[in-house]
Amino acid sequence: MLPETIHLEIVTSDRKIVGLDVDEVIMPGKEGYLGVLPGHAPLLSELDIGQLMYRRGDMRHYLSMAWGFAEVLPDKVSVLAEIAERAEDIDRERANRARDRAKQRLQGQSGDIDLRRAQVALQKALIRIQVASHAGPDRPE
Known about the structure:
Oligomer: single chain
Number of helices: 2
Low-confidence stretches: none
């Protein structure tokens, strides 16, 4: 018999971000987004920069994340993320400033730049801004 929910654990090196039973998880795998429901086949995946969404009933919750690994079992998803931040914890102004700095670097306005580093900074800032737009009272989506 398949489980009705799946336990989601999201941790970084310094804290536990999430630890609860959910109905669905969508996370940024290295080769594209992964959708996980209770009873999913076991797998290990490297994670990329992106938005992680989990659903409890009709409420969706969002996190920005960057890099890490996920282990999926039929009744549990364990995520070890290098960076993870809940939508409600994101400082939108700081994310906007980071986006603007990265864009300036990419446009060559900052002199000699590390192109890959500037691209990653822009990608992370854009994800944080996107996830922050979901902050606020829980609501069905």
